[in-house]
Amino acid sequence: MLHSFQEISEIINLNLNKLQLDKKSPAGLYLPAHYTLELGGKRIRPALVLMACNMFSDEVDAAITPALGIEVFHNFTLLHDDIMDHADIRRGQPTVHKKWNENTAILSGDVMQIIAYQLIAETPAACLKPVLDLFSTTAAEVCEGQQFDMEFEKRIDVDADEYIEMIRLKTAVLLGCSLKTGALIGGADERNAQILYDFGINIGLAFQLKDDLLDVYGDEAVFGKKIGGDILCNKHTFLLIHAKKRASGETKEKLFHYLSDTHITPNEKISGVTEIYNRLEVKKICEDAMSFYFEKAIANLKDIQIQEEKKKELLKLAQKLMHRND
Amino acid sequence: MLHSFQEISEIINLNLNKLQLDKKSPAGLYLPAHYTLELGGKRIRPALVLMACNMFSDEVDAAITPALGIEVFHNFTLLHDDIMDHADIRRGQPTVHKKWNENTAILSGDVMQIIAYQLIAETPAACLKPVLDLFSTTAAEVCEGQQFDMEFEKRIDVDADEYIEMIRLKTAVLLGCSLKTGALIGGADERNAQILYDFGINIGLAFQLKDDLLDVYGDEAVFGKKIGGDILCNKHTFLLIHAKKRASGETKEKLFHYLSDTHITPNEKISGVTEIYNRLEVKKICEDAMSFYFEKAIANLKDIQIQEEKKKELLKLAQKLMHRND
Q1: Minimum CA–CA partner of A25 in chain B
Q2: Is the minimum CB–CB distance between A307 and chain B shorter than 8 Å?
Q3: CB-side neighbour CA atoms (13 Å) of A321
Q4: Band of residue A227 on the pLDDT scale cut at 50, 70, 90
Q5: DSSP assignment string, A294-305
Q6: ipTM of this model?
Q7: Of B29, B80, B121, the CB nearest to A110
Q8: CB B210 within 8 A of CB B290
């Protein structure tokens, strides 16, 4: 039986609650980990694990614990990234290094990575080794993506290909890993499992480009964070990279002025850069790239050799993610 | 055939060199990990893995990669501990967060933990699950030990039992884990493997008490770090805990004066506190506790049901560690 996204989400939340990290000692180590998980989020990654498993197996129970492992790992990366990015707020709440301190944030993150592996290790023996290896490869790639992201902050010449490779590592591979993990546990053959991985990569890239667009063109109330955050910190998003490439003459001068002048007010900077984006039509370039990866993902899904009926929940979720406003 | 410690060390160093983390990209992520491993150290933990394996099997090849995993994990904990402890120097060289920066130290440490798991995952399939679970449990305990260590810095009422539990978690469990991992890979039964684990715990506790003693009574040139470091930072070592317990009257006043007066010179503080330790004979208490755990370890070794001949290299190493001056 094919579970709806709603049902899958309920299974995940129920089981996340059972982790009860807030009951573990020492509280100084485990409470910040519990807090990070409690901040919420869409639980997309564990949902992908279960949905992929469900495409090949009516039973999803065996995939639940590994799915939680991937969610704990994802939250660990958010916790450590927030230290590195000096981010004070996550999902409207103070980040761990703000609420506690930096040492707590480092060590609680470390133990979350271990807990993630403990949960992954509950994968059925028959596919433990491939799932474990995929998870480790992916986890290392996520670190590589974060490293590139930090290095890009200090560079002015990042090109679109480098940016796509960075977001592939930082964001997309964990979605691919989630799907392939679920597929393997569900009994998929290597070909179908790998196509689902590719689907995850393409959805992940489209997803991140959507995020870049929402940062500039989103509705603040719905998006849940301040519009223009990427613009204010000169983040080399797909939009900025293409704006820099297309700008010339007076527009180019103006753009570099906005990027370098520290006396400008935040609102002026956001509206000024947005105006340049509009003039250079980089929104369309970003939307086109997003559609390109989304279409590739849809083609991947078609390519999977199972009944079309089994694909429908994943297709629905992919479409929802592409048309989301938050 | 039983390998000598010397031979075992050569196998480990040869294979550590093959990791070649300095060849991996991005260098900004992997070079600090390589640097940390290159700082050296006695490679005790991987040696214990191979020696324990060798007690039950003539072949140690299957244990080499997991042994490296434990060494990489150990070095990861040093790297992150150095950030948390604001330590600038490790083995005579600048620490990663000093040589690079804190973000680099956090992220390189994170990827080292993943590499550790990748190496552990190369354990032969027949004992992968128990080895993996033991490793994760141990890794979490090491984090718990570090958490207690940091919490103790802010307390004045740490007692000897709490201290022993802290060093059990922070230091001893990884030695126990190393030995049990090697034993399991070598084909030991659960009883023998568990006794070797207990041997590791007892050696680890004795080892740490030895370290506490060397910090005060060691020879600086041989010890490799400054004498009195623990005294200067008011670290609740076994010596200080017992000194506080035994001190009374004028001696107590003097001890608390040394602990709280910030105008005193480092040399005055070290010689003053050492003089109190001598007067209260806490050196003997620490030596007795060390001998107590060492004897327990020797009893564990006797308890293992294999030919006495097979135990001799491990016994030799344990004795060497107890009589070391560095």
Answers
A1: B144
A2: no
A3: 29
A4: confident
A5: HHHHHHHHHHS-
A6: 0.96
A7: B80
A8: yes
